[in-house]
Design brief:
Helix content: 25-40%
Oligomer: single chain
Shape: globular
CATH architecture: 2-Layer Sandwich
Strand content: 15-25%
Order of helices and strands: EEHEHHEH
Strand order of the largest sheet: 1-2
Number of strands: 4
Number of domains: 1
Radius of gyration: 16 Å
CATH topology: Nucleotidyltransferase, domain 5
Number of helices: 4
Length: 131
């Protein structure tokens, strides 16, 4: 497992996070571990607010809807840690983005595993309806 993230401050400073994670786990665990690492990284660099873009609907749902049902204990621990860290920010929001719009973070995660970036596949535009 690995994580990748790009943080851009309001004044345009860009910081990248690319880190191999110990152990193994499922994609959801990787997403949660990345979320915790990103929030901690932002706080470490003085962030007072964070607008998190993620391609994980699970992360989006559980951080933006406090009444979301609990996840299995192994994942809920990460949810609780992310919420705790986010409470240290003046502003925190989460927005889902499609995977093809998260390619830079994915490339950083793959870099931590010494893998080349994946080819970005964008969805086909919807065909226009003929009248």
């Amino acid at each position: 497992m690995a994580l990748g993230a790009v943080l851009t401050s309001p004044d345009g400073v860009v910081r990248q996070l690319s880190q191999r994670l110990a152990g193994s786990g499922c994609n959801n665990e990787a997403e949660w571990r990345a979320t915790v690492a990103v929030i901690a990284f932002a706080l470490k660099h003085g962030a007072r607010g964070l607008h998190l873009h993620t391609d994980s609907t699970q992360v989006r749902d559980h951080l933006s809807q406090p009444d979301s049902p609990a996840l299995p204990p192994a994942l809920q621990t990460w949810v609780d840690e992310a919420r705790s860290l986010a409470s240290g920010l003046n502003h925190f929001s989460v927005q889902w983005v499609p995977r093809h719009r998260n390619a830079q973070a994915d490339a950083l995660a793959r870099q931590a595993l010494e893998l080349p970036p994946k080819a970005v596949q964008t969805p086909h535009p919807r065909a226009r309806r003929k009248r």
